[in-house]
């Protein structure tokens, strides 16, 4: 695992966007795995800015998001607001789990099939939960898990409650599994702030534990972690 140290959120966002934008510019076709949450917002802001300034097309980009709440379009709206409305990506090349699907089980297997048909994910961006979750893979999830429906833990519900001031917070989500995430050719994990320091410490301790889902990344051959000062506090 490679660690890139940055001082703050601004620098992290710019460097993460630089990494993605370099690939967008040079690839003929690219499958990007995307994440939501507060962490990647700055990266999307820079990416949108670069795309506008350089008149860079995203016609050759396919995106696959990590997760969505059940019965909700929260992350669809998030992606639209922070990235998709700022770039010229074709709509049929955007993929986010459908949390409103009539059959969630079917939606999960369709999602897996879709990723396979795309030829897998070239670069997966990840945030990290305070409890070490990636996507919505909560502690205890098997490292072999494929896309599935999860019951969110109290810790995750509490950390994300701020996004649901006007609506009821769903207690379930669809998430890409850890096994699915691990098949990405490259992974970029972003960690900002002291709240993530313990999860980052566990990640770099180097011992695999299903209690800390992010430790599954230890054995992946191409992982880069971008962490600011706060997130590195316990290293
Ligand atoms: C949610 C998302 C994760 C994200 C995490 C951290 O649980 N499903 O993909 O990494 O929150 O969010 P934040 O970046 O807001 O701290």
From TrEMBL:
Its EC number is 3.5.99.6. Signal peptide: none annotated. Pfam families: Glucosamine_iso. GO terms for molecular function: glucosamine-6-phosphate deaminase activity; identical protein binding. Residues 8-218 form the Glucosamine/galactosamine-6-phosphate isomerase domain. The keyword Glycosyltransferase does not apply. It is an enzyme of class 3 (hydrolase). Keywords: Carbohydrate metabolism, Hydrolase. One of its GO terms (biological process) is carbohydrate metabolic process. One of its GO terms (cellular component) is cytoplasm. It comes from the Bacteria. This is Glucosamine-6-phosphate deaminase. The lineage of its organism: Bacteria, Bacillati, Bacillota, Bacilli, Bacillales.
């Amino acid at each position: 695992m490679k660690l890139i140290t940055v001082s703050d959120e601004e620098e992290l966002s710019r460097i993460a966007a630089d990494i993605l934008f370099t690939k967008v510019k040079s690839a003929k076709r690219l499958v990007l795995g995307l994440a939501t949450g507060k962490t990647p917002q700055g990266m999307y802001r820079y990416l949108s800015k670069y795309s506008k300034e350089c008149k860079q097309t995203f016609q050759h980009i396919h995106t696959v998001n990590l997760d969505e709440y059940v019965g909700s379009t929260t992350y669809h709206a998030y992606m639209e607001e922070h990235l998709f409305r700022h770039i010229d990506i074709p709509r049929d090349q955007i993929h986010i789990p459908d949390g409103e699907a009539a059959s969630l089980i079917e939606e999960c297997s369709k999602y897996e099939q879709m990723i396979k048909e795309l030829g897998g994910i070239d670069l997966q961006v990840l945030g990290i939960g305070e409890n070490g979750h990636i996507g919505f893979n909560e502690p205890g999830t098997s490292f072999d898990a494929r896309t599935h429906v999860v019951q969110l833990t109290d810790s995750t519900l509490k950390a994300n409650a701020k996004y649901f001031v006007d609506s009821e917070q769903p207690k379930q989500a669809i998430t890409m599994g850890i096994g699915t995430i691990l098949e990405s050719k490259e992974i970029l994990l972003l960690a900002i702030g002291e709240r993530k320091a313990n999860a980052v410490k566990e990640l770099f301790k180097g011992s695999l534990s299903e209690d800390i889902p992010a430790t599954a990344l230890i054995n992946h051959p191409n992982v880069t972690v971008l962490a600011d000062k706060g997130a590195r506090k316990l290293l």
